[in-house]
Write the structure tokens for this entry.
Amino acid sequence: MDAVARIEQVLSAAVARVEASGAPPKLAAAIRYAVFPGGARIRPRLCLAVAGACGEDGPAVADAAAAAIELLHCASLVHDDLPCFDDAPLRRGKPSVHRAFGERVAVLTGDALIVLAFQMLAAGGAWSPHRFAELLLIISRGVGMPTGIVAGQAWECEPHVVLADYQRQKTGALFAAATCAGAAAAGADPGAWRTFGERIGEAYQVADDVRDVAADPVQLGKPTGRDAALGRPNAVRELGLAGAVRRLDLLVGEAVDSIPVCRGGDALRAQIRAEVDALLPRDLARRAA
Amino acid sequence: MDAVARIEQVLSAAVARVEASGAPPKLAAAIRYAVFPGGARIRPRLCLAVAGACGEDGPAVADAAAAAIELLHCASLVHDDLPCFDDAPLRRGKPSVHRAFGERVAVLTGDALIVLAFQMLAAGGAWSPHRFAELLLIISRGVGMPTGIVAGQAWECEPHVVLADYQRQKTGALFAAATCAGAAAAGADPGAWRTFGERIGEAYQVADDVRDVAADPVQLGKPTGRDAALGRPNAVRELGLAGAVRRLDLLVGEAVDSIPVCRGGDALRAQIRAEVDALLPRDLARRAA
């Protein structure tokens, strides 16, 4: 089974759990709506790719870690879209959760997805309790305070923003968790994979900034120009379009160079190059160059 | 060290973790504000009481479980108080988190507390990975979908409420998690302690309903009459004040009778009777009788 199919299958099983009898129906429906259809599933694919490169011996552990990371990402999107934050009308080409289900259900959807993520980890961890404890620490570090994605989002509430902290925490932290978790799921040293995740996360942020400025909103499935509208930092504003694309290339190069010696290193490097092409379509990169 | 001191110590250690350098200061301050000073800490004390009654052999595991449960309870208070839910101005005798720090920080405070709860479990679980996996399942079940406190809160968004599900999920689920987790932390069978937690949770809900109708708001630290104002179910409205107090006594009796045979059974029974007296002060019970 390819990585995408593995991820969708394990996410399906996770979401089916919350739809049991006795569950409040609107919240159950909103959780499904927030998870399917997905975006690029880039974080869980990265997690599985690293687990594969490290020679995973128990796919259930990597599957659980990948699903947990994607559920946490979905939770962050639902809460970031709330009226008190971005008040985003659209997400993944359809109304955001609070537009479709109301603000109260959207708050609870995020909460329930966070809990579900940790539940998934526990289920997958039955296979290897020791790896599971390590995964829980890695993933909660990528999400919570003081330096996970929740911390990153909280910089939007501060009068003085430490820009590097904001970007590293808001995006990089969960990418780093994805690569470290992939390694830990396969019994490899997670610390050796942190730089790889951080650089890919930074590259992804730059690609996102370029798309926010230059992509077609219909193709993107969400409005563009949001960073300027919301006064958020954007790499294109700082470096220009061509400068941002050069920065992206540099970050991807650093990411690929940081990959530790492992069985599947070559395949992983090729996959990363392909991922980046998908992130920033060639016509967009050409226009920027 | 007594139970209250143990709980405050482990909660202090948990909150200190989020205040590391690089953390967004407002969110860090709001997390501390949401956890200290606490309420009655009734759920973590129940968890430690059961662990003690079962003959706990590794206090770190029970401490972690108790702290996780209290952090999740604090998270639920912060989110339930949000403008889109109760819009509560006060909590524990001071402005609610969203009134003190703004709505955005309040959303993130709840999120960060949920993640921190699971992080605490992981840290305490290093002592015993197997018990830790079981604790994670018990606690996430008490909090998440389909039947934890997030599900309970979501019934407030439904046009047709299944009242028994609402009450069992909104309050009972985390009490049941507290007693089951206490047993699991001590290596005992958690299932044998579910009824005890559920009945105590129901009793607590009835006591809360009585206080909402009959207590002094200054002493209580939050406004009274909220159930009537928000159209929520309340045992006093259904059963009258005297009927609600009788129901409370019945539930406590059932709870105490359900306690499995264990070393510390007598001490636990005495403690529960004292807890209930503290929950519903005698003058209130007398007025109701």
About this structure: Chain A touches chain B through 62 residues (CB under 8 Å). Chain A has a mean pLDDT of 91. The two ends of chain A are 37 Å apart (CA to CA). The longest strand of chain A covers residues 90-91.
